[in-house]
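Lab notebook, bench 4. The sequencing result for the construct came back, and we need a structural model before the next group meeting so we can plan mutations. Quick request posted to the team channel:

Model the 3D structure of this chain.
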Amino acid sequence: MMSIQGIRGVRMRRGLAVSVAGLTAIPALVLGTGGSAQAASCTTSTGPNQKQVEKYLHRPVDGKQSVADCKAIRSFQSTYGVTPTIGYAGPVTWRTMTTLTAQKAAGKDPNKAKKCPTDKGRIACVDLTRQISWIQDGKKLKFGPVPVRTGRDKYETRTGAKKIYWRHKNHVSSIYHVSMPYSQFFDGGQAFHAVGVKMWNPPGSHGCVNMRTADAKSYWNLLKNGDDVYVYGRKLGT
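Done. Here's the predicted structure in token form:
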């Protein structure tokens, strides 16, 4: 018969074996460094968009994930609100980089392609493809362009010509029970309004045009009921 001490020793060895097996069963994760064990924080997996992401971040383009690659990708994800923030070079991260590139290229002439009407006086334009919005008066740019966060897949922001028909500065959604400051409704339940997340945070809104608080406040001060809104394009990933 084994002694109590012997039984405890076997249990401890079995527990250690299970713990080690558990660590080796998660090859895609690396434990944080330091004096004590930390939660897994960075993926070792090579993403499907590895080379594109490496090029965007000015990393060596070899298509293989490295510790330095992961840190650079995680920093980007953290900055732009891309989740999960584990350094994986996946489609969401790459779409965000593509969108950022298009936003920067818009510069101070977002309507260069003349897709938003210039014959309606003051109008708020929303380009779903580039995820930007601006206000123009005829051909003159009045405000923007600014980044926006539009509807996710299955909840797309509807395209076409609209008009602002109701404004509520301190609106709270009766459907999702969340605060929607500086709401300006232009199509059913879809509105411009401020949110507390970053504009690139996936997967997107439930159809509204989310804005940073300062931008939503500027839209509130520049627009009124009856002003035109024009939505066009298609958000990447929808």
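The two ends are 66 Å apart (CA to CA).
Will bring this to the meeting.
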